[in-house]
Amino acid sequence: EAQVTQNPRYLITVTGKKLTVTCSQNMNHEYMSWYRQDPGRGLRQIYYSMNVEVTDKGDVPEGYKVSRKEKRNFPLILESPSPNQTSLYFCASSFRPSTNSPLHFGNGTRLTVT
Amino acid sequence: GENVEQHPSTLSVQEGDSAVIKCTYSDSASNYFPWYKQELGKGPQLIIDIRSNVGEKKDQRIAVTLNKTAKHFSLHITETQPEDSAVYFCAALQVGPYSGGSNYKLTFGKGTLLTVNP
C-alpha cells in the first residue's frame, strides 16, 4: 500500500531534549516536506526536499533540522525543543506537487514539549 | 509570498443540504489549487483539484470553481452526508526559486470545520 509513515504518533518530551521524528515513503517520490499544524493557523511548511541531499527552508524553519540521505526517508530533528514547538506535525511527499502528482500526507505526530 | 484566505472557519449544515467553502489567493502566478479533507486523527487527503486553465471541475457530489480574474476558488459539496464532516483545507501552488533553489510550495488556508447534522 502506498503510504507516508511517520513515527512516533505521539511524543511528550521536555525542553532541551533532542528528538527526531521519522518519515518514510514507499512511492519513490522525489519531493518531501514537513508541515506543522496549529489551531487557527492552518498548515505551515517547515522544510522541504526536492531530492536526495537537496533540502531548503520553508516558512517556519527556526528550531528544526532535516536531512535527506535516502530518497525514502526525511527525518525532522529538533536539537533543543522548546514549548512553542508543541504542535501537530505532518510529513508529505509527491513526485512534484502538481495536478498530476498530489501531495500525500502521513497521519501526523502530535508533539508536546513541557 | 502567497497568501490564502479561507472562509468560513466553521460551517454547520443539515444532512442533504449543500456546503460552500471559499478561498482567495494573492499571487496571480499560482496555477494549481487543491482541496484537502482532514478527518480526526488523520493527515489531510486530496479530494479534488483544479488547474488555472479550467473554470470548473466536478467529481460526483464535489465540485470546485475557479475565477482567475478575481483570484478566488470555491469548494461545493452537494447532498451532504454525516461522513462529509471534517476539516477542509484549500491551497494554492507556487513554483519558483526560493532560497537559492526551487520549490513547489503549497500555501494552505486555515481550514474550515464542516459539521453535517443528521
Explained architecture:
The complex is a heterodimer of chains A (114) and B (118). With 114 residues, chain A is mainly β. Chain A is 0% helix and 50% strand. Chain A is built from no helices and 11 strands. Chain A has strands at residues 4-7, 10-13, 19-25, 31-38, 42-51, 54-57, 65-66, 76-78, 87-94, 104-105, 109-113. In chain A, the strands form 2 sheets. In chain A, strands 2, 4, 5, 6, 9, 10 and 11 form a 7-stranded mixed sheet that branches. A 4-stranded antiparallel sheet of chain A has the order 1-3-8-7, with no helix packed on it. In chain A, a hairpin with a 2-residue loop joins strand 5 (42-51) and strand 6 (54-57). The mean pLDDT of chain B is 91. In chain B, strand 7 and strand 8 (72-77) form a beta hairpin. Chain B is mainly beta and 118 residues long. Chain B has strands at residues 4-7, 10-14, 19-25, 32-38, 45-51, 56-59, 62-67, 72-77, 86-96, 103-108, 112-117. In chain B, strands 2, 4, 5, 9, 10 and 11 form a 6-stranded mixed sheet that branches.
Keywords:
heterodimer; A: 114 residues; mainly beta; four-stranded antiparallel β-sheet; 50% strand; B: 118 residues
Describe what is shown at a glance.
The complex is a heterodimer of chains A (114) and B (118). Chain A has 114 residues and is mostly beta strands.
